[in-house]
Amino acid sequence: MADLDQLQALRIRIDDLDGQILQLISARAQCAQEVARVKMAALAEGETAVFYRPEREAQVLKRIMERNEGPLGNEDMARLFREIMSCCLALEEPLKAAYLGPEGTFSHAATIKHFGQAVVSKPMMAIDEVFREVAAGAVDFGVVPVENSTEGAVNHTLDSFLEHDLVICGEVELRIHHHLLVGENTKTEHITRIYSHAQSLAQCRKWLDAHYPNVERVAVSSNADAARRVKSEWNSAAIAGDMAASLYGLRPVFEKIEDRPDNSTRFLIIGNQDVPPIGDDKTSIIVSMRNKPGALHELLVPFHSNGIDLTRIETRPSRSGKWTYVFFIDFVGHHQDPAIKTVLDKIQQEAVALKVLGSYPKAVL
């Protein structure tokens, strides 16, 4: 009886806390509505008003994680606040974001992770279409994959930066878990074909060699497309993630079949607005150097001399001439930082061309 009394008291306490949380969220939403009214008034006066501030959201989430005392983990707590902020922002101005579709892709999952469920997401069939939607002003932002920890750079994204004048506003990292999925009519003992995106097939190569060495592997445009195909077939399976499984009503036969347990993909948020520094930033640039001995050394020396941490460097063929190349470089810091300005000025003196793609907060979640 004592245990029942204690349980009832705890339930009453939880109900009371839920009421307080509800009131506080409502109060926050009302503040968001007031913010929207102030910004709309500024627009009416011909002033500039920015509804989405990536640096502001990053600062809020970092502060939440720093102040969190548990028992919920930092990322769990930050995800809760991400959704609160997403819903409140939608009261100001619903964000529209394009991503590499169709629905259920990892790009779709990255879009939801970064912007929250309240974002108006728009699937596109190719990476360059995401860039074009943002450049045309049809959406506010785009979400594109840029590198995978197993398979390396996504060259279509890098090449699109050479063709479009857009700004990187943020990044999001997504742990990639692949599952072998089947439909309700699939005869698992007679699987003769496995669909997935080429990169996903590559990320699960060893597992497939060990478990389905004689089964045909068919590369398709996306994991979501693979899941869609499998839904209506009895002798095939798909490699895809949780979101695709849920959207297309598939069940996992095997879970987490990726060859590397730390398999992750990094996505970039592209838009048209510069992002102020928060003190924990990254910068991405494109550099074209003269084709001469020691060109790469000359490019890297200023970073070393000024103690700037390089996080990635990739090479792609230039569009301006045969056997010429451009370098994509990511490094720690904001382009407004004095040390970074010194480095960029030095590179500008030696480079054929230098373009700052953007400075943005490091991924928080």
TrEMBL record:
InterPro entries linked to this entry: ACT-like_dom_sf (IPR045865), ACT_dom (IPR002912), Chor_mutase/pphenate_deHydtase (IPR008242), Chorismate_II_sf (IPR036263), CM_dom_sf (IPR036979), CM_II_prokaryot (IPR002701), G/b/e-P-prot_chorismate_mutase (IPR010957), Preph_deHydtase (IPR001086)
Marked site positions, Essential for prephenate dehydratase activity: 265
One Pfam family of this chain: CM_2
GO function terms (MF aspect): chorismate mutase activity; prephenate dehydratase activity
Cellular component annotations (GO), alphabetically ordered: cytoplasm
Entries under NCBIfam families matching the protein: CM_P2, PRK11898.1
Name of the protein described by the UniProt record: Bifunctional chorismate mutase/prephenate dehydratase
Species: Pseudomonas matsuisoli
